[in-house]
Amino acid sequence: MAVPQAQPAMIAPNEYPSVHIAARRGWLALDLPELWAYRELLYFFVWRDIKVRYKQTAIGAAWAVLQPVMTMLVFSLFFGRLARIPSQGLPYPVFYYCALLPWMYFSTAMQGATNIVVDQQRVITKIYFPRVVLPIAAVLSGLLDFAISFVVFLAIMVYYRIVPTAAIIWLPGFTLLAILTALGVGLWLSALNALYRDVRYVLPFLVQFWMFASPVAYPSSLVPEKWRWLYGLNPMAGVIEGFRWALTGHGQPPGILLATSSAAVLLLVLSGLVYFHAMEGTIADVV
Amino acid sequence: MSDIAISANRLGKRYRLGALRRQTSIRERLSDTLRAPFRWLRPNRDESHMGPREFWALRDVSFEIRNGDVVGLIGRNGAGKSTLLKILSRVTQPTEGSAEIHGRVGSLLEVGTGFHLELTGRENTYLNGAILGMGRREISRKFDEIVAFAEVADFIDTPLKHYSTGMQMRLAFAVAAHLEPETLLIDEVLAVGDMAFQKKCLGKMGEVASGGRTIVFVSHQLNQIRRLCKKAIWLDHGKIFKIGPTAEIAGAYETSMMDRSEGSKGIVGLPEVCNGFVSWEIVEPRAETPNILTTSGPVRIKFVLRLSKPVSDGHHGIALFNHERQLMWGWAAHNLQLTEGTHEIHYLFPTLPLRPGLYNWDVSLFDGVKEIDRWACFPEMTIATEIHQDLRDEWNGILNVPCEFGIRNMENIAVVGAAERARGESQ
Asked: Is the pTM of this model over 0.80?
């Protein structure tokens, strides 16, 4: 060989922890040190997802703007102008866009996470890495589109001369809640999808039903007060109301709604991790 | 600190046949769910459900591999080689038993894992490197070397979809070849690319092997195993059959392949065939086992054909393939009229100068366009002749031809010639 080869680094065997291989048992849901060790891979999965997303499209990342804007216009016309749904005193475009910001993120992230395990089955059957990296990557890569459509929202705010109140400091919290919701659902559905391709067909309906079960097209104040806590079991209800309140200062801080939503998210993510983990060992055999 | 790199303790892996089909539909599970709620959320839980359609791809496999050992895994298809490699690389979990691997493990069950056609060669190099377990900095450091090895420097910023298959494979292997874990698990990945590149890869593998790293290597090509590995593990039906120095194990393995054929003495046929090819054998040179060829020629081969109906417009094709399904030779006879009954088809080859190994005869018979039979002859033909060429893999070709070699000094002859010419002219 013409190219001189670097000698392999002499690394004492005990510098890396040894790998123990056995059938996995128990409920330990998330191996955080291992996940940390694979952070670069997570980064590359996110990076690839973002790179590939708008390849070979004519208008590229403009889709990230067009989708929520078009939906906002349609909602404003039909639900607003024609159906006269109350909008907490906000102009319809602002009212809907506030909700579409987290909703669009949630629905793409959740769908991405659901499909990623099946889409990456070639990689899964050939190489080891903590499988949970995949749904996490899918959920994170959706954040770029979210950021882009957020910039558009700022333009809308300026146009309607709406000044955000101090409540905006809560926005990162609501965003985190949206991310966790997408992750929790994604964990469940991606593992199920590996087993049953039915999930793929159920998904579009699920997204549609879920949207109507969330206060995207209407304010949650339409839901009777005594059922509000139950409504909050849908974590996206808390997230969307939270977004509206945090961004515009209109409406009420989603107190009881947020409490149940947070509890629901916590349960969703934890159970999702446990289920995904239980599936992880066999995923390469069944996917 | 021990010097054991890999130790496996009674590893076993059970698969269920037909499980995949079952699991793609949720419907069947719904009735079970009424009986045992939530059970359907987990795969393969219900033992009674599955019945006997399960098998052990691997059972009771224990071994130890020392640091720096290069170990070849051999065995017939379905012997459990790939399953073992998948368990060691943690792609799949063992059903029972355990294993311990010390140090960083890299696995190459496939080259080009995670390649994306829309991304450029550069982007894919980083992505693939990360998937194989390299860090970003590590890839950056080796980037130029990888690109040079793959010989794709001019196209490195072109999307992969514009690459030829060969270029894709070269890039993929180049990335993989620059992986530097202490333990490397390799499944038959060398069967890629053109011959020249294969040789280059083998060279690289040789360097890796001599670099003191622990390597477990699966290959069907005993030559490769012999060249690269000091030790070999022979798997058979999911169990370790033999383990030891490569020369010994590979030799025993080869012999057993012949024994296996020997077990089917005489004409190996399919008695139930009533319209088609029944058997084949090497008639000349006559040997104990009629499917082993020990000289390069002349060779007479006989195929027995049984017809229940006459054939009026017969077309008979024959082909010889090597173990990698490369066509060695093909031929056809047309316009054949055959009566019903048993026929013998004879072929006489002045010589069959092929390198030792396993070969397959494929024969077919058509009546007009209607296929009467097409047979991938069993058993395979084993060529076990003397080797008449360089023993090194990269200089070991398909043809195994003896040659006469001579060397003469042309200086003197030229002088004589000139002198003769000079004499002629002077006359």
From this structure: no
